[in-house]
Structures are given as structure tokens and as C-alpha cells.
Protein 1
Amino acid sequence: MSRIISQLWRSFAYLLYLSICIEVALQGFYYVTAGDFLFRRIALPIYVSEPYAGFGNRPGLSFDHQTKEFRAHYFINKAGYRVPRPDVEYTVAKPANTYRVMILGPSFAFGWGVDYEFSFAGVLQQLLRERGYAREKKIEVINAGVPAMPLAPQIAWFDQMGRHYESDLVIQFVYGSMAVKNVSEPPYAVNDKGYLVSPYGDGGWRWRERLKNLATVFYGWVLWTKLSTARPSAQLEEKGGAVQEVGREIAASTKFDPLHPEVRGATQVYTRLANVVRAAGAQLLVVHFPRSYAIHREDESRWQHLGLLDIERQMAFDGDLVHHLNECRIPSIDITQQLQKSAQAGKRMYYWLDIHWTPAGNITAARAVADYLVGRS
């Protein structure tokens, strides 16, 4: 019996050693291909619970965010808005002779990975001032972006809080697929340390997040996803040429159909946003932009394990939905072409590992929006 137990222990030790060797090798492979180790992918403790959207930026925060690709500092004022300096606050009542812009959206609106002066909000404010937008009025931009914030919960926040700021223009960022979900429940809660967590209790969520940082788990999932999503083109045609957004399939036909449930549901969300913004006395502009693989094709390898099938079809779908919103009198623009043009000129619009805009990406996006606004003024 003791001999059997000894053999089992030796076998277990061997398997453990082999697993460690494989993990080290795969972490090294990820480092070579992605620029960092998987276990360094960490969340940021920058959040606080919020009654309407579920979570928001932590008021009074001063946070230094440093990765292999960038170093940026975030200041959050007392109201929870990102600001260029810790002493910047905004009165709820709009000051006289001021044209006020409020920016809504997730981390791209927030300005993840760049200092404030290189963020979309900072660059847009400078451009509008330089171009004399709103004539003699002072341009004031309130950055209400919150990293990881979906559209529907942010609409609820604006309806209860943002509308009181008397904005003249509200800019809503939509990243990735335009077919947003009509789900108002916040996807995250905030723990006592300021991290986003599952709103349904731990339930193994924390352990799942840790396991995702193991290279053996990550690449095992990559392999499984590729095998499960590998389908011949004939099968795609049988499903109506489904549009594949990263992580989920949008079962919409190749020909854009405004009556399709996915499109109708998304249109309802945008209509609700437009109605809430108009009721607050402001104009709305929806700004759509894609994930990095649509701008830098060398980034496709970073996304294919999530089910990326047809970039051109996805981009056409999003462009058609933008056009549909304009027909519904919901002002919307797609800045994909401007980002592509800058990328073709040799500029990197998105970080490789982090996937957010670089300073050049923020500048290009701000110029595209400024061009649109000034051209229609």
C-alpha cells in the first residue's frame, strides 16, 4: 500500500512540475506576442457604488495608472467627473455665456491610458475653442465617462443626475457593436476596495477572474473557442450570414433589417437616450467607433479567440445602424474612416495590449467630432 501511495505522490509531483513548466512557457509566449504577462492584467480600484447607474468614478480620486505601454494620472472631482486638475469643479447651473458639452460613455470617454490633456475630452475642448465654435461663448466640457459603463445604465444616470447640468450638447460614445443590449441592470457592483465585482455575489466570480490569468486556462479557452466557432462558410449562409461581434453573435442577416429584434432592441435604447437628452434641453450626438482590429488588422490575433469571423460584415452592419439612427432623427456618426486614415499614415490609434486609444487615437477622434460639429454649426 505504501508503495502505491508513493507512486501516486511521484505521479502527482510530476504532473504538477509539468503543469508549471507549461504555464511558464505559455506565459512567456503571451509576453512575446502581447507585450506583457497574463497575470499582470488587473482591474483598478477606482469605483464607488452609485444609485442610478450601479457604479461610478470614485469622487476625489487621484490615481496613477502605469502599464508596460503607458503611464497616465487620473483626477476625479467631488462630483465623480474626470478633470484635468484636482481643483476643477462644475456648478450644476450652467454659467452665463457658456456652451456646455457633457461626454458619456465607457473607458474611451473617460480617457483611459492617457493624461487629461491628451484625452478626447481635453482635445475636443481645445479644438472647439480654437475653431470659434458656439461663437463668443466659453466652451466647457464635462467628462462624465465611466470605465466599463454600458449605455442603458448611463441613460438612467443621466435622467436622474446628468440632466441637471443644463448641457447644450451630450456626446454618447458607443464602442464596438452598435447593437447595444436593452438591459438596464448594471453589470457590476463595487466592493469595499473600489473594484468592480459581480452584482450577484461572489459565486466563484473572483476565482474565475484569477483563473483567466493562467496561461494554460487562457490558451485552453482559446483552443476550445476556435474549435467551437470554426464553421464553413456554407453554415454561415444557412444562418443568414450572421454578424459576429466579439464574444457574441448578432443573428442579423447580411442585408440590414431595421425590424430584426437585435436592431429594434438597440434602436429602442438609442431612442430612450435621445428622448432623455432632449427633455433636458440638450442636443445629442452618438459617436460610434470600432474595436482595434478594424483599424489595425495586425490586431486580429488579439480578438479571434473571442469568435471574430467577418470584420467587413460587422463594420457594414454598424454603419447601417448608424445610418438608421440618423433616419430616426437621432444624430449619429461613425468615425471609423478617420481612425483608419490616421492608421494608414503610420500612426498607432489603439494600444496593442491595453486596446484603448493612444494619444494619437484620442486626437484623431476629437478632430473627427470637431469637424462634424463645426461643419454643421
Note: Residues 59 and 80 are 5 Å apart (CA to CA).
Protein 2
Amino acid sequence: MPQGKRKLASGVYEVARLEEGVVVVDETLVRAVTEQAEFAHPSNLGIPLAAEMARALQVSAFTVEPVGVDEFAPEAEVSGYAPVRRRSTGHVLSIKAAARRAGQDLGRSPAEANLVVAHLGGGVTIAALRRGAIVDANTALLGDGPFTPQRAGALPTRDLIALCYSGRFSREALEAELSSRAGLYSYLGTHDLGEIENQISAGKEEAGFVLEAMCYQFAKQIGAMACVLRGEIEAVVVTGGLARSRAAMEKLRSRVSHLGPLLVYPESLEMSAMAAGAGRALSGEEPVLRWADFAPDASAEKEVGDAEAI
């Protein structure tokens, strides 16, 4: 983070505003995603598309809970190697939406509750929320944490170094390998949970074993986040595509139910969370944030990444 600049805060960011009948687009934010995005990801299109739609329809546009929102506790930023800082990069929109939903179900304000929230999909973010803030989480893409249907998660460092210098991959090819052809896919040739469940039903032992191993890693990460909160958690919350897999949820429940209630939200919460965030901004219920207050120039770290937009 450039000296003197604030971390990217949680909330709703202005992409475009209607000012005296003229749409004013935050071009700095658009360039941050189109020219400086941290990862190649289809959702990088969200903010520039929102800007174009704002111009065409003569309306305001917002991005809600960008992926680079950083509420990490200072100790969570320490990687173990001084030149490398751990940064918050994950499914912030989904995590925050699930926390809001859990707060409603628990009769608690999200700003008061301590939760472990797991977004389990093609990518995985498992986060510790202390009074609503994501104080620690694994890095969802080419970072640490569990493997996923398509991503490798944390790998033994010595073996990873050997893979880098094996001559088999360019940097780009290895990034693609570990982010889209790893995880369940590398073991079973598919990342489709329905197909894997069919393999299990047909008696394919390897399919059941690898699914168990993935859920084992999910549980380890959930346990680690519970420790971040000193065990003072009100619930473990699960959302994302894998929440629709009965087999995966049964395996996960058997390992984490002792930590507290397990709340599973199999439906996608992200689209409604974007609409709700924009609604709060338009009604004045929540202040609108501006990208320039956090990362106003090209020297800023690439904190937007694959931000979700509305």
C-alpha cells in the first residue's frame, strides 16, 4: 500500500454519478480494473460495463464490496517472509452477504457478530469476521488455504519451486494450471460435483476419497479461522456452489459441527447483495465511497482485482 493511503474499505463504491443531467464516470476506477487488475477474471468486466450502462441509461452505477476490501488485523498481514505481505483478496461480496443473512437468522447485527464464513465454489474464501470485519482469510486465487474443485490452494513450497523450474510451464501456463486445472479436476478429471457424486454412487472409491480430502482441508481452514476469533464464534456460515452438494455438506458438518451452529445458504446471495448495496447508496442509508480516496493513481497496489459491480 502506498504510504499514507488507506486500505480499501468495505462498502459501496461509486462507478458513475448523475450530476445535473450528465453522467460522470470515475475513470480512475475503470482504469484500475481494465489496466491494473490483479487477476485475469471475467468479472473484471463488471465495472467498465456498469460505466457504459450508466452512460447509456443516464443513471448512477456502483460497485459493491470489491474483492480487494482489506480489513485484515495487523498480525494477519505477516507472511513469514518480510518482502511479502499477506493481503485480503477473496469473495468479499459473498462473505459479507452471507454474514448479513446469518445476522438476520441469529437475531444479531452483522456489526456485532463473530462468524466464520466460508464461500465454497470454484474458488474458496474462508474468513474470520470479528464484529462484521474480515480480520483474516485465505487468499482465494493462487494463494493459501484449501484446494477447490479447480484450484490448487497451498502447496508444499519446495515442490512448488521445483515445479516452477521444471521447464514444463511458462509462468502464465503454470498460473493457469494451478488456478483452473488443479484441485478435484487434477485428481478426477472433472470439477463437476454432480458428476463426482455420481462416481461415488457408482462405487468409485477415489472420488469419495478426494472429496473427503477437500472437505478435510475446508474444515482445517474453518478451524484456523475459529482460532483467529479465539473460539468465540456464533456460527459457521457456508455459501457458494458447493453448499448445494449434500455429500460435501455432510462431510463438512461431521468435522465442524462442534464449533457451533452450521448455517448453510445454498442459494446465490451475490446478485441480491449488489442490488441491496446500490439501494442503500441511493437511499442515503449508506455513504458512497470513492476509489480515489484509497488508491488514486497507478502507483497504488492492485486492490480492485475482479470486483463485482452493479
Note: The two ends are 26 Å apart (CA to CA).
Protein 3
Amino acid sequence: MLLAPITLFVYNRPSHTLQSLQALAKNELALQSHLLIFADAAKREEDVKNVAEVRKLIRQKLPFKSVEIIETISNKGLMNSIIDGVTMVINQYGKIIVLEDDLITSQGFLTYMNEALTCYEDEKKVMHISGYMFPIHKKLPETVFYQSTSCWSWATWKDRWAYFNPNAQELYDKLLSSGKMYRFDLDGSNQFISQLEMNITGKRHTWSIKWEASVHLQGGLCLHPHMSMVRNCGHEGSGTSFDSSGLLAIQPLQSYVHVTKIPVVENQDLRERMKLYYALDGKITTTRMMYY
């Protein structure tokens, strides 16, 4: 199995970056994997010190097959950093595993991601592999398909990423004209379309809702583990979102998920449970699933 390169995006949070790297290094496939780290430059004067600390940290000897560091000389912002970085890596390697600096992975994360990329490489309807699963407290099969791409750890292939459209207005218009708007918005839950609208008005500048819409327009589906293999440790206010409950920071992780080919159809039980999650469970936290 030819392993996918790991691409990690970092900025100004040295403690989060350290946690992310330490967890990733415990993965069984770490020593066989190529790691590329994209480090954005400081946007504000108050970020300079922390950015420098992060860059010092990632230059230390790391337990991977190889490590390549790409540092910008001016601030690109998360959206442009991810779009440009993913495009560069995937054009070179043909597939990619994507992480950000506040994501803590389980020890079987890389095994799951690589097995899924291999298993579904020729299933073109499968456009995205997610390492995250919401804390929905519902018994699910080992792996399931769901419409949501989920930006907290993911993987894809070059031919799927080719459908990515960064233009929010074009995506909105296509969803409207194709009659896919209601289903895209998880049957009117207003979890997704509002994110797209905020990008159109300029209130937000995010990347993942555009990937979500791009996948949906192609009729794509996303593979998810039955239980999350990644936890977000950045909800204390250091990043773009905040979880007042603290529940996401202690979400238990699944160590291993066995990947076997299953029918490429959306799991309707999960879809219905996610609608309930957004309506009820998600209100426990102030963020639910933030789109970056």
C-alpha cells in the first residue's frame, strides 16, 4: 500500500501543535509516512512570537519517514493556506491526508485513512474520507457514508479535489438551479447554506463549506468511522471557535477502525440522527461543527 502524504497546517499555537505532532507520531504508520508542514506567517504583531515558537518546534527532529516544511513570508490566512497547500501536495502525490494544528489523532488514524483511500480509490462517488465522527451516541456500522465532508481531519484524491470550486456565489447558484439546495442544507437544517451565504457577503472567508458544496454538486459521499478517530483540542478560544461546555475536548476516540468495502449509499439512520444533533445536541456547545 502506497501511503498518502500527511499535510499539517500550523500557525501560532505552539502547545496545540506539539500535542498534534505527539499524537500523530504515535501512529503505527508514522515512520513510513511523509509529513509536509505548512506554516503561515504572522498576521499581527502580537502573533510574531508564537509563530516563531511554532516554527522552532516543527524544525525539531520528528519521527516520520521524511519531513518537509513550507513557511510563508507573509500571512495567507487559513483558507488560502489550505486551498493552496492541498492543491500543491495532491498534484504531486495524487492523494492526501489533511490535518490542522489543533487535532489529536488516535494511534490507528493513519491506518484507517490509508486503508480507506486504497479501498475506495476507484469508487468515484466517494470523494472524501473523514476521520471525525460527531458525538451522536448512536450505534453505527464500523464505517458509514454521510453527505457531510467534515473538516476535522480528512483525505481525498486528486481527481476528486479537481471538482473543488472556491467561488461561493457560483456554488450557491448551481445548488439553486439544480434543485439540490434543500438536501445540501441537510433538509432545511440551515447548517450549511448559512455558511455559504456568509462567504458570499464577505462576513466569513472559509474553505470547507465550499468543498462541502462542491462534493454535494457532484453527488459525492463521504466515509466516516463509527466513532471519531480525532479530537479537537482548540475550542478553548485560541482558534476560530469556542466550546463553552468542554465536551468536544474530552470526546473519546476509537483506536482502530477496520475498513472493508460497503455499499456507496448514505446511511439514512445517521442522516436523521445528525438532523437531531443539530437541532438539539449541538446546542449544548456554542460551536457545534465550525466551518473554517
Note: Residues 115 and 259 are 6 Å apart (CA to CA).
Protein 4
Amino acid sequence: MTTGTIFDIKRFAIHDGPGIRTTVFLKGCPLSCWWCHNPESRSAAPEVLYREHLCVRCGACVDACPEGARSIDGDVVSRDAGRCVVCGTCAEVCPSGALDKVGRETTVDGLMKEIERDTSFFDQSGGGVTFSGGEPLVQSGFLLELLSRCRDHDIHTVVDTCGFAKPQVVKAVADRTDLFLFDLKFMDPDRHLELTGVSNGLILENLKSLVGMGKDVRIRIPVIPSVTNADGNFDAIGRFVSSLADPPHVTLLPHHSTAMGKYSRFDIDKRLPDDVGDPTSEELQEIASTLAGYGLDVSY
């Protein structure tokens, strides 16, 4: 029985593809983007995240843990990683919300039952299911089976991807996917490596391959002032996308600084400087104009 790990399901989504959609967020990502809005998704395994600033040191988690993995000594609450099985019992009993289980394992059958609850909305709106993350291609076996099952049930499918995967995985997923939302972040390979942890050579080749296969692709570009909107990046993107055989539609995704609050809530190290704000409407219009100058269809 094929299983996978998800960390959220968002119903009635309207920005993740056509119509009303159910967006399933799969855990695990090979990138570590400075501006990631879902930093809790990076690890492919379920996690119990500890928010020390909320902890009241009551000891409820210590008493409840069936494995004896938690202890408290004065103001210090500790977890024995060797004993912890990430069952989430500690998070269930935590009265202050200092502990939060992120991620749950599910079967293809179990997840399809959740998806199929929304088919009436899909039928009425021309919607379907979107697989996002994290990076859904990390769990390729799980994703492929889900896509096949959706096709069997005539459910429209979207895969939201950063494109960093083996070409054979991308090809297999492409054969079962109706639409790709493909992230394009930075064209300079060294800067891409610095900002995301990986170079972009494989990503660009996979994008070329999908377009060459005639797949329905929409490119999505994060707009982060002084980060992605710097060093002529959008001119470089315009030149690259316009050179493709059938240039896809481009959507600009403005950075939202409020999402950076997750880093402090989950005690995750944040690399994006605190003074990076959200792009203004004027900045977005200017970028859209730049890309349109290369003959591209752009929205934001």
C-alpha cells in the first residue's frame, strides 16, 4: 500500500489552478529558499516543532509521552530524539500550543477519499486537485499513484513544482498531469545556488522539456524586493522564457512578509533579512511591463 506524508489540505482554493480546487501540500523539499513561505515543509518526515516562547514548563508533555522521550529540568524542556517516534501525543496535550505536529502519513486510498468529498465543487467550477508542497516531486511514487487515481475519476490535476527532479521523474509525472505551475526564481546559477541551495541547470532543462512536450505550463515567479527583483533578473527571465518554443503564461507572486512569522513561531532559522518588505503595486507593474516587452503574457 503506497503511503506519503502531507502537512496540510486547503479546500476551496482559487489561486492554485482553474476553478475551485483542493490543494494538497506534500512534505519535503530539496530547496531551502530564503523566502520560503512554508519552511515547516522542508523535511519529508513528520515533525513535532517546539515554540519555546510559548512553553509554560507545565510538564504535560513529559507525563503524556508514551516513549518517555520528553523531560524537563528547571526551565529546560528536552526531547530524546532516539526515543521519540513523532506520535504527536505531546502536541495534543500541550495547553499553550508550544508543541505542534507538522505532517501526517496517509495512504493513497485515504487521501483520495478526502479529495473526492469535493468533486461536486470541481464539477461545477471546472476545478480539481493541486499537489503542492514542499515539493511534490520529492514523493514521486506517492504522487504518481495519486495522479493516476485522479485521472481514473476524471479529476483535473495540477502539480505545483520547483522543477528540481530527475528528468525521468518529471516525464512520468507529466504523462499524468493536466497543468504545471512551474516556479522560476533566479536565472544566474550562482545567485540561484546562494538563494535556494541548488543550482538551476536541472530546473531550466526540465522546464524546456515540459514546454517541448506540449504540456500546459504556467510559470510563477516570486517577487522579493532587492532579492529576485535585482541584478537584471527579470530581463534575464524574459529572454529565457521568450526563447522557449511556446512561451508559457507568467504570473508574478508578490512576497508577503507576514508569512515570515512562521520562522519565529516554529523556531526555524531565517536567512531573509528583516528589512525585506513586500513589493508595491508600482514595482509589480514595472516588472510586468519588462516581461511583456519580451512578448510574454503576464499577470499578477
Note: DSSP finds eleven helices and 13 strands in the chain.
